[in-house]
Automatic annotation (TrEMBL):
This is Integral membrane protein. Keywords: Membrane, Transmembrane, Transmembrane helix. Pfam families: DUF6350. InterPro entries: DUF6350. The chain crosses the membrane at residues 30-53, 85-104, 125-142, 154-174, 209-230, 242-263, 306-325, 337-359, 379-397.
Length: 425
């Protein structure tokens, strides 16, 4: 009776501390669930279009293979289509953004659950990571069939999925664990690099530069849509409700790509439109392009005219970056302010290379083997604009503020984010 009383006195759901952590199988299934959640973002519209417009030679298995192929493509995996195995490497960046956001959220949730449990917190992420890759392996196996509309390439596809998953999932874990090992002071001389949080100021300035470039690229894209013939192309190509919805979804998934192409256009480097074709503010040469609404917004042939106005976008973004750096420049010497601005300019280059590489690719062989910005030109142009405008702009802002004293505070609010451009020191 006494033993029964002691047993009933214990909390029913209480477990010993060594058993509180979840099993590896539960973490593996959590990774599988995350992969299926990201897959549903693609599978639901694909199967919806298949139900609306079922073709006689298409089946549910074919629709599933198409969904798997688009899911892999959203991870940056190279695919092939047709009997000639034409490469398809243009990544729909909207799918990539959705997949990345879901992976980051899953990493943060797992980190909060496993925080403070020593080695267990590393075993759980590895098991979840393995579960995600298990679904990716199944998708690769399904798309390896020659009958698939988008055929997979086993090793490159698995490596692409593994790289994106590791980066996004790892970032979520890092944020969920309190961001340990944050950026420390750069190993530069005190005469060139200021102390007291200059790294945070540089990161904030880099984020402002990227955000302003994307906003300006969006404005250029909207102007191109208004002046282009995308609507006429959609009316000519769309057939029935399923055709319209499919075309709309395809265009939406490629809108981030179009924004980066517009940014490259505004930077002056332009972008490739097929082998031998190029679109830029200094001139455009185009050959035959596929009938697709987004390609109908390309600028016409001819020399430079009002298209040079697009170059005001990176100039304005660089000025905004200089104003933000001017907040702290009054506390630094002139060489230190110039050094921080130069570091921001140099850090923009690798980010630009990555963005340019992810926004372009190929849609086939021959002419369609080159599409999008040239990565090294895209990154180099960003550094050049910042070095040419932001560095002297920071020095000018520092000189003006030390001469006249603090000016009025200018705050810009975009949604839930507030940007202080010219605050008092």
């Amino acid at each position: 009776m006494r033993a029964m009383t002691q047993l009933m006195g214990r909390p029913i759901l209480g477990l010993p501390s060594e058993l509180e952590s979840r099993s590896a199988l539960a973490d593996l299934l959590a990774g599988v669930r995350t992969a299926l959640l990201t897959l549903s973002v693609v599978a639901v519209p694909v199967f919806g279009l298949w139900v609306l417009a079922p073709y006689g030679d298409d089946s549910a298995q074919g629709a599933a293979r198409t969904a798997f192929g688009l899911w892999l493509l959203g991870h940056g995996a190279p695919l092939a289509r047709g009997p000639e195995a034409a490469p398809v490497t243009v990544t729909p960046l909207l799918l990539t953004a959705v997949v990345t956001a879901l992976l980051v959220r899953a990493g943060r949730r797992l980190a909060r659950r496993a925080r403070g449990r020593g080695f267990v917190r590393w075993r759980s992420p590895l098991a979840a990571y393995a579960g995600y890759l298990l679904v990716a392996a199944g998708a690769v196996a399904q798309c390896a069939d020659p009958q698939a509309a988008l055929r997979s390439r086993a090793l490159p596809d698995l490596l692409a999925v593994a790289a994106l998953t590791a980066g996004a999932f790892g970032y979520g874990l890092w944020g969920g664990l309190g961001r340990p090992g944050q950026l420390r002071r750069l190993p530069l001389s005190a005469a060139l690099w200021p102390a007291g949080g200059a790294e945070r100021v540089a990161l904030r300035a880099l984020a402002v530069w990227a955000g302003a470039l994307l906003a300006g690229g969006g404005a250029v894209f909207v102007v191109a849509v208004v002046l282009g013939s995308a609507g006429h192309g959609a009316q000519r190509l769309g057939g029935g409700s399923a055709g319209w919805l499919g075309m709309l979804l395809a265009c939406l998934t490629l809108v981030p790509n179009a924004l980066l192409w517009s940014v490259s256009y505004a930077l002056g480097t332009g972008f490739a439109v097929g082998a031998g074709g190029h679109a830029g503010p200094l001139g455009t040469r185009l050959g035959a392009v596929p009938d697709f609404p987004l390609l109908a917004v390309l600028p016409g042939r001819g020399g430079p005219d009002w298209h040079l106005l697009a170059c005001g976008v990176p100039a304005a973004a660089a000025v905004l970056t200089a104003l933000l750096l001017g907040r702290a420049a009054v506390r630094w010497s002139a060489p230190q302010a110039a050094a921080v601005a130069a570091v921001v300019a140099l850090a923009a280059a690798p980010l630009g290379v990555l963005a340019g590489w992810s926004a372009g690719g190929a849609l086939g062989t021959g002419r369609m083997s080159e599409l999008g910005p040239v990565p090294w030109q895209f990154g180099l142009a960003q550094s050049a604009w910042l070095l040419a405008v932001a560095v002297p702009g920071v020095l000018l802002a520092r000189w003006w503020r030390t001469r006249t004293g603090p000016g009025p505070v200018v705050r810009i609010r975009v949604g839930a984010y507030r940007l202080v451009c010219w605050p008092a020191p």
